[in-house]
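thread from #wetlab-drylab

HS: before we spend reagent money on co-crystallization trials with NAP, can we at least see a predicted complex? here's what I'd submit
DV: go for it
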Amino acid sequence: MQTLADTAAPRARAEGVDFDVVVVGAGFAGLYMLHRLRGLGLSVRVLEAASGVGGTWYWNRYPGARCDVESVEYSYQFSLELQQEWDWSERYAAQPELLRYANHVADRFDLRRDIQFDTRVRAATFDDTANRWIIETENGARLCASYCVMATGCLSVPNEPKFKGTGTFAGPTYHTGRWPHEGVDFSGQRVGIIGTGSSAVQSIPIIAEQAAHLYVFQRTPSFVVPARNAPLSQREAEAVKAEYPALRALAKTRRNGLFCATTDMSALAVSDAERERAFRERYDRGGLCYTGTFNDLLIDQRANESAADFLRARIREVVKDPDVAETLCPRTVVGGKRLCIDTGYYEAFNRPNVTLIDLNKAPLEVITRDGLITGGKAYRVDTIVYAIGFDAMTGALTRIDIRGKDGTRLAEKWAQGPRTYLGLSVAGFPNLFAITGPGSPSVLTNMLPTIEQHVDWIADCIDYLRARKFRRIEATQDAESAWVAEVNRIAEGTLFPTCNSWYLGANIPGKPRVFMPYIGFPPYVEKCNDVAANGYSGFALS
Ligand code: NAP
């Protein structure tokens, strides 16, 4: 019987589209993966749907888009020279600066010559006989590779608006995750924004300054902590650069991979005054550190409630209208959804041109030609902004028609939730790796070190296989099942599953409710290292 590789591989070789590795995506993961694989002397082709590098920071250009991890941490550490030579201008880098950084890395390491832009991957099929992946692009090209690495990102597939009447609206609509490169001028316009997650929290203050009127349609209020963004002085930057190796090493000991430590105190073991002082100190410092004020905020409901009370009190201090303040007060778990980091978010609701609409009291009924109707009331708007998030963690993988060794589709295998071994590999899908896949710490950490850890592990693994003349690696069903159980066991010991978050797929109607990330960066790294040190235990090599 003729296999797909019998026909595709010789042609691919002849056409120069036969590689050791095909990498899908040229964001921070794909760029570093290319660099590492090249260093092993492998032939690599990176396929990227966008016209440039940068991934998340290529697409998310909405007003105010900015990283919620400090710039000195949200950066590569694989090159000491790069780490020393790049200067960040602010405590939290804005999207244009992050994109400049991605482009700088691509140029500095001469990566572009192996990246094919404007190329979206449609399908990837494993040929069991030839041990090769056949990758097909949307423009009809076919490539072959011994290994396929999915560097497709965790938050790269926008949650499409499916409201009743969505298509009937006459004016322009924008999704924060696919913002036009030329920007949008909201001057003089009535704007409706749906969603109040991180993207909305960043963009609302800026749109409010421009628009004639901004209507904010909120389903679930978010917990928001001030960023306290500021220019990064040369003195501060130099202090970090002098200490980089030690700081990076320390961050690897943290559950979330950040410089900032979680204390070893319980919120319930201190006096009310001490607790208040501790929250105040972290709140004044700004940023994601807030959830590390005490060690039990994400495992004990009462401890978490104290952190929530503190933040609700801050909302009531800032927002002048008591009814609006109460509507903005979240009743969920602090940190159960990713904390939002703001500059001027609550202050925006004191503006006369901003109206908050509580979709819990007045559900969104329909989008019409002229605007939105909620609870029987019509809001006429000129423009709608959808800040409704992403089909997170699995969406970028399941939308590609990935077929494993017996033709099984990944999307079918994951119909009841993602199943991986270490978030890196899937049983039945040999020689396929995912960077920051579901079942790995990824989105619960600082993504850059997490990406580097995965890339290094994958590169070392491929190097190991080649040195020993193995042509194939596949996670065993047993190892995968045990890992899925472990990811769930750890999540169940926390408050995370109590929130309707995208960590659980709860933001996408019909998506199975499964907690997807693995909680705890250091034990995860230890497990990955052990697996490698034991000759890739849990994998079948042949
Ligand atoms: P998100 O956190 O998923 O927020 C989406 C918002 O849209 C939520 O308020 C959600 O309400 C609402 N929504 C979704 N579907 C809706 C519907 N059918 N009707 C009404 N409201 C609906 O998405 P995001 O703000 O784009 O952020 C996603 C993630 O990207 C963040 O958690 C973060 O990890 C990352 N991010 C980071 C930064 C940063 O670094 N500063 C910035 C932006 C994004 P519900 O909560 O009720 O579902």
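DV: The mean pLDDT is 96.
HS: ok that's useful, forwarding to the group
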